[in-house]
Amino acid sequence: MADDKEEQQKSSKRTSWKPTRTSFVAETRQEPKHEVHPTSEYEVKLPRKVPISSSRRPLVDILSHDELCSLCHNIPKIELHAHLSGTVKESTLNELGRAKGLDISKMKFTLESLAATDSLEQTWKETVEAFDNIRKLTAYDLHVLRRIINEAIEMYAEDGCVYLELRTGLKHLPDRKTFLSEVISTINLAQGKHGIIVRLLVSVDRGASVEDARETISIAIDAYESQSKGGGQRGGGVLVGVEMGGNPLRGNWDELRPLFQQARDAGMRVSLHFAENKGHEEEHEKILEFRPDRLGHAVFMSKKITDKVLNTKTPVEVCITCHEAYYKVDRKKNVFGILKSHNHPAILCCDNACLLHTLLSKEWEVAIQTFKLTAEDVQHMVLDNVDAIFADSVTKQKLRVQCENRLKSLFTKSEAPRARKSGGGGWQSLLFLSLSAACLGGLYYLRVVKRAI
Asked: How far apart are CA 123 and CA 312, in angstroms?
């Protein structure tokens, strides 16, 4: 083992992005030899009930590692920041590349710079290269588009996600309007097939031209308004909002703001990538003045900006793995800690699940471990997350009931008495984590392994 560690330390450059750096698996675990999502490492049978002495004790002090993994899988999770292009399985990309006769060994789908440099500029350069390669393999055929959407939705459903908001920019496949229409129709079919509620945000690339952004917003508004025709509830369709993403070192918010205002005036919800560019406090203030419905990332906030975010109570989409990988933010110093300490709405998200080798259950696991979350914290977070979704009120109420029922099956108070360790007698109730066979669905990890290979 000592020789192995010395050899690893001598290696100055990783050949591929490894999940051990920012995943929630202990660094000493053996990495899988084939493509497999981290959740699949835990192929164990768990007890039906795990006693928890207090809802306010950290879960990591109560549950074994395997029990915690199982809990994180079964929590009714809500994903609000998932880029479609970053949620394409590497095995699918390899298959598509071979089918086109391409030398996939020369195509980069992972981000080597994440482990080799602290340069944000270099990281974004490799990110653009990876996404360009992904587009070459996925943005040329509608059948491929349908496949990757289905696989992304299936992946989240298999991971115990009950609500998903995908986001994607508009591709010329064969034109942007047709592309958006195809994405919406595919989501409509897939969400019923996989038993998960799915909604869509159209992405505006802040690094592209203003004309490009204007066209994107215009197409999105037209599609959004068409959903309400024929008596349908406004905002009740698949397309619910728009978002600003892309390279935070590019673009001008002042030029994009009027376009997002148009989308808002049409009834669409708005999420904006925020504070990914350190030291740009003036832009951060202007974005907050716009009062978006949600903020994405919020990585580099000054004390002044942090206070303003806390005062507005604007929900924040937090992607812990992404922040550690891209921005070299130690997970213990992640903005999630500040938000949690102020009871601010924070939604754990993946960002680019396949690109970063993570899953939403793993994001929950690291948050529970790092920030010592309790059963009470988990329950409050899940229900707060429901309030942050962009779907209409009918869908929101349906989701709330679903989450409440799932939480009842996980966290159940038992009337069985238990003597106190000290003091003059008396009893205290036990809080049990009920991991029923129905929730587990048998050995769900085996299913994930089969799906992920």
From this structure: 32
Q: Which domain holds residue 227?
A: 71-402
Q: DSSP per residue over 101-159, as a string?
A: T--GGG---S-THHHH---HHHHHHHHHHHHHHHHHHHTT-HHHHHHHHHHHHHHHHHT
For the record, the structure tokens of 383 come out as: 């229900």
Return the beta strands (E) in 23-117 as ranges.
49-52, 77-83
- Please tell me the total count of domains within the chain: 1
Per-residue pLDDT of the chain (453 residues; tens, 9 = 90+): 444 444 444 333 333 333 332 222 222 233 333 333 333 333 333 434 444 556 788 999 989 999 999 999 999 999 999 999 999 999 999 999 999 888 877 777 766 555 566 677 777 777 888 888 898 899 889 999 999 999 999 999 999 999 999 999 999 999 999 999 999 999 999 999 999 999 999 999 999 999 999 999 999 999 999 987 755 566 679 999 999 999 898 999 999 999 999 999 999 999 999 999 999 999 999 999 999 999 999 999 999 999 999 999 999 999 999 999 888 899 999 999 999 999 999 999 999 999 899 999 999 999 999 999 999 999 999 999 999 999 999 999 999 999 999 998 888 665 343 333 333 333 333 344 444 433 444 444 444 434 443
Q: Which candidate, 58, 22, 65, 76, places its Cα nearest to that of 42?
A: 65
Q: Is residue 270 part of a domain?
A: yes
Which two tokens mark 355? 């690109």
CATH number at residue 213: 3.20.20.140
Q: Torsion-angle region of residue 441: left (phi > 0), alpha (psi -120 to 50) or beta?
A: left
Closest CA to 152 of 350, 362, 443: 350
- For residue 41, being part of any structural domain is answered with no
Give the span between the Cα atoms of 355 and 280, in whole angstroms: 27
Residue 293 falls within a domain, yes or no? yes
Q: Flag whether 259 is in a domain.
A: yes
Cα angle value 254/255/257 (rounded, 5°): 65
